[in-house]
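name: query_chain
kind: protein
chains: 1
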Amino acid sequence: MNISLLAFIKALTENKKTAEQKTYGGIIMRDNEKVRQLYKEYQRKDITRAERREMLEKIARERYKTDPRKSISVKGQAVVNLLLGVVMTVIAVAAMISRSIGSIRQQTPAVVAATAVYVVLLIISGRYKKEPEDELAKELMLKATAYSAKGLIISTMVFGMAVNMACNRIHKDSVKITGEMIMWYGYLMIGMYYVLRNAFYLWLDRTPESEEEA
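structure:
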């Protein structure tokens, strides 16, 4: 009886140690002592913001090394995010058209198909570990973000002009905008942001012709 009780207590202790090894600070570390040590350093209050950011990058690189999943490059991530943005844009446009014409049945197949593609892309992206960005990738992504912000401003102006032209064609001085339309317009802007940001990044990260010839 005593032996069984000791074995039970020992099993509970080992399970607790295993749980502590797998989780630290609410983050799964995959039993990597180096990652746990880096995370302890990250939690120190006497380090600067730059040191804390550098520590996060080290943690990300170490977790990337220990992740057993197949890797996807930064450019591959941009392609997936671009496709997600395209699908989001299609869903938003289809929903806005269906609400404007007062019949959602005509747009239901497009919305369902786009949503299915969106879910499939999310599942596929979840099967890969993401390669950490290097300094060049970060710089190019910052430029792409700046370009996409300008692109969104231009897109908003074009959207307003299109609505104005549509109202003039049907001889209406105003258009009724509901809260649902504003919601879908915001969803549209998110999708376009993903499209523009990742498209600009892929364009900036393209291989020069001189290097391809070499």
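note: The helical segments are 2-22, 33-42, 49-66, 74-101, 108-126, 135-169, 179-204, 209-213.
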